[in-house]
Amino acid sequence: MQMDSKLEISLLYDFYKELLNRSQQQVVELYVNDDLSLSEVADILSISRQGVRDSLNRAAKKLRDYESKLHFYQNYNAQQKTVGKILAYAEEIRGLTRDAAIIGLCDRLIDDTEKLMEREDQHGV
């Protein structure tokens, strides 16, 4: 599994880990998230290196299949881009005016948007 693939699996795992069986969760946690080698994971779980590889491949396929059907990660990325634009627009508007009411509304919009993003991060996404 290549580095970009590890990153992809790690990101998809954040969204779909509960849909994997417990042994697949363990393998992904150890190999992808803890960055252990196949041999290290095999030693910890008392299975063969090939068993680790097979479990990883099955888990990765499941994660990709879930994403291809549900699009949670894709939608999350689109939302994050939109939120970034909203913040940028609010900052830009704030910088274009001296009107205290507009500045106050921009500040509230920025604060509320940042709180929303914090809540999402607290939920592991």
Summarize the structure in words:
Helices cover 83% and strands 0% of the residues. The mean pLDDT is 92. The chain is elongated, with a radius of gyration of 20 Å. It is built from 6 helices and no strands. It is mostly helical. Helix 3 crosses helix 4.
Could you give the topology of this structure?
Elements: H1 3-16, H2 22-33, H3 38-45, H4 49-70, H5 72-96, H6 100-122
Helix pairs in contact: 1-4, 2-3, 2-4, 3-4, 5-6
Percent of residues in helices: over 70%
Proportion of residues in extended strands: under 5%
The arrangement of helices and strands along the chain is: HHHHHH
The separation of the N and C termini measures 23 Å
- Global geometry: elongated
Number of DSSP strands? Answer: 0
Low-confidence parts: none
Main structural class = mainly alpha
Mean pLDDT: 92
> What is the number of helices?
6
Radius of gyration: 20 Å
Largest sheet: none
How would you briefly describe this protein structure?
With 125 residues, the protein is mainly α.
List keywords for this structure.
mainly alpha, 83% helix, elongated, 6 helices, 125 residues
